[in-house]
């Protein structure tokens, strides 16, 4: 059976002759050789080797040594070796060790005394410790704080042993007396912790008697005081809780950030009063802005998020303080800040929040920020969420964001154009200015997907004569001169040398690639590339404005089909708003010329790939439609598309509203709840905080806030029976799954009239489960029970099985009895939490993490 260890050292096992070499080194007079020999002996013992013949050598040649390193290694050696025989009695050789330890406790050197006292903290044999107690107590009054500090730790460890109160019956009184006169911070902390663990009333009395001086205590002692207050106030019916809350609030001004953090957490756990919660939230915000470590910032943001779930009204007031954490260069911190702020939006603070986010967007244009493109995308998504929820702020941000339609970060540009598409539908008042701004900035767009969405917006929302004409003119300018190639260029392109290929700087992908849908399945789509494309250099044209031409010449025929559809819509709209038939026919002819040029380019050998069938059919449909237009078709093209988009937005808004209703079903206040007017309550000299806390406690008691019936019911549902009711030992387990840790709380009940000795719960796992620790042997009295805990680590998403048995001995039967346990099946669904993911985020993660399983197939062609 594995034994508990207080020491862990890595060591590769050596040869069998190492033991004799160690003995020779210890018997020599060379101090360096003794140090090396003791180190190897300690490491061998830690790795399971038994060196019984070495003990006498250590007593004879190592005990008398005055070298500090040797004495330190000697104590480690004594800590590891077995001090009891097979019958459980202390070995007689330990008497020799007792005399040496007593000498060390009276040694003139402070270091020897200190390390010996620290060693005694790890001893659990009363027979060894009893003769040393007087020497330990003498060290409480030593002049050096190093020795007093470890003497207090040794007294605390001895007193907490099973029969420690018999070894030092007056330990709490001695420690309390030492604490009153002690000046060293660590020694005072050790004494205070001993009183907290063994004599809590004395620790509370010391704390109350020093209430006015707690703020001046060293940070180590303040942390111990906070822990004591947590334990004392755990009971819901303590009438003096307000006194302890005052101590916590006074410690919020401590110079130690660790103390301040602990006090903020303790304050929320002790009181639900708005004043206390507000003080805790302000403290967290100050730590968030003052700490530079990103891990600390993430932890503080988690605490603030917990406050948001339970005290949303208070957190709304500190939303601007939380936003200041966006100055951190870490993207994870920025993402958490934005997520938290979006959950705290109200009509009162949304304008302030959006204004701050606009300033951050402007900062990203300078190019000084690391990963500025990703940060800009996060800001755009946050502003989008603000504008969708509060439409009145859309007008102040949409024009600024439209400047980023040509962003080099394609994801950010896509977010901007999707934002523009939604705002132009939901805010009709902004339509005119947004269309004009889109026309002015269209030539800056370089991404195919952004161009496609922008063209759809122009085709749907260009309503007036000037808007339609400007949109057609802009598309023509971005396409450049027609045709896209000449016959001589096509002939040169088919040549083997191909010296006159157009210079296309865009990164292209085949337009016939499979696309990943939202559910993870694949579909065939003739989609354009989403990479950043720079304009092609075409002779006789300005490359900076010919973004559509460069994308088409890179083989993006999906975008070409979108251009054809947009021109068709614009021409159909022009027929309605243009009184002159001549101008209408002229625009229609120009659109047909562009479409036929696209078809000619797609079927030529000028480009490496031909136009795909979907895009070809789409362009041909547009050509036929412009040549022969009916009223039904006109209605579909000019009205139905926009109506479908509006319906999609309405369904999206409806789903979000339903989700919000579902979340708000568990209300904090019922219509028939008692309203407590605490202004009419008897104050009895209480402060405002104490009064608020008492009111909150009364409300919790009245509404069942202190009961946990739901949790108890949930626990009963997760209890698994491991043995039968007729077995001598009944066992059941409660399984707790937390992320990748599984904890088994096993209750074992002795149903016999006999004492069960060496009872052991032996567990094994199947699958990618790993048992962290093996439970020890226990002695179980008749009809008594024992709680045994086992920890298991999960290393994959496969289903695992935990199986095992209970082994025990009785006085009547010499052989060991075995009871086989029922298997425990750990399913993947037990440690997977449901979550939502946007389509765009899902596609990005799918591409980034490569979740597809690629299988290589080798086919053998058989000839018949």
Automatic annotation (TrEMBL):
GO molecular function: structural molecule activity
Main location group: cytoplasm
GO biological process: endoplasmic reticulum to Golgi vesicle-mediated transport; intra-Golgi vesicle-mediated transport; intracellular protein transport
Record's keyword annotation contains Nucleotide-binding: no
A Pfam family of this chain: Coatamer_beta_C
GO CC entries: COPI vesicle coat; Golgi membrane
Ranges for domain Clathrin/coatomer adaptor adaptin-like N-terminal: 20-474
Keyword tags: Cytoplasm, Cytoplasmic vesicle, ER-Golgi transport, Golgi apparatus, Membrane, Protein transport, Repeat, Transport
Residue stretches making up the Coatomer beta subunit appendage platform domain: 815-856
Function: The coatomer is a cytosolic protein complex that binds to dilysine motifs and reversibly associates with Golgi non-clathrin-coated vesicles, which further mediate biosynthetic protein transport from the ER, via the Golgi up to the trans Golgi network. Coatomer complex is required for budding from Golgi membranes, and is essential for the retrograde Golgi-to-ER transport of dilysine-tagged proteins.
Description of how the protein assembles with itself and partners: Oligomeric complex that consists of at least the alpha, beta, beta', gamma, delta, epsilon and zeta subunits.
Descriptive protein name: Coatomer subunit beta
Source organism of the structure: Zizania palustris (Northern wild rice)
